Amino acid sequence: MAHILLAEDEVLIALMFQDALEVEGHRVSVAHDGIEALEVDEQDPAEVLVTDLAMPRMGGRELLERLRQRRPDLPALVVSGYPGEFEIATEKTVLLPKPVSPKVLTQRLAQLLEDRRTVREF
């Protein structure tokens, strides 16, 4: 399973997503804003980013840009209450409008990881 970096400032949502991802067998590192997420990733690089767009100190858009400077192929699930404000630049970025259930989150993550494996096999 994958190591997931979960960046979500709303504690209850973060706990709900973390639990759902861990039940699926993933290892999850949680950060509550973009700055903290960068620090966590520096110590233990993630295979996938799950982030909210709107967070204090640094939002998900800048977080994703900075992490992709380190690892351009980093897949990401971006969760937002304002999905029209975010353009998906590549097939490795999935946008999920809020509210999103943990079930949908884990399904889309599984699909993203499967697509990534399929690309690597060719």
TrEMBL record:
Gene3D superfamilies: 3.40.50.2300. PROSITE patterns: RESPONSE_REGULATORY. Residues 3-113 form the Response regulatory domain. The modification 4-aspartylphosphate is found at residue 52. It comes from the Bacteria. The keyword Membrane does not apply. One of its GO terms (biological process) is phosphorelay signal transduction system. SUPFAM superfamilies: CheY-like. It holds the Pfam family Response_reg. InterPro entries: Bact_response_regulator, CheY-like_superfamily, Sig_transdc_resp-reg_receiver. Keywords: Phosphoprotein. This is Response regulatory domain-containing protein. The lineage of its organism: Bacteria, Pseudomonadati, Pseudomonadota, Alphaproteobacteria, Rhodospirillales.
